[in-house]
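Chapter review: from sequence to fold.
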Amino acid sequence: MRMLILVFALMSSSAVVLASRPQGFEFPKDGNGLLDYCGEVVVQLDSHGTPKSNEDAELKFGWCVGYLQATHEQITNWRTTVGIQRMAEGKDKPAPPYLWADTNFVNTCIPDEASIGQLARVLVKWLREHPERLHELKSFLVIEALRDNFPCAISKEVTKPEPAKH
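The token string follows.
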């Protein structure tokens, strides 16, 4: 219930933020944008939360925190889906095709105690270590950075069942 209230509050406030964003403010599309936006989270963490008066910095911080939170929740969702798939497979029934999960998400095991700030630090560090990839789409870079830093201890690759032969 608390999560539902939080999601509703974030959705309600996002419309206000989008309407009030500065002219020319663009959301990131690639690794360069991620480094800029999520770098702001690291700057704020390193300054021990000293608030900035810069509106762009506040929007970048908020965007990155929200994007990382949504990605973390998507990873959790896929991992749950895989649990359902494996239960169905154990009963000699293949899981419905709509339940086949993305293995990139499935092979990422972020510890429960990892904070969004920690995820931002991991992402920014990974992006700085891979400057040749900054032109790539943000969604691929985020999941790869998280998967590289939080691999599952026992990674069982998810495979699709063979089609039934008639």
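Two observations follow directly from the output. Residues 27-149 form one domain. The chain has a mean pLDDT of 78.
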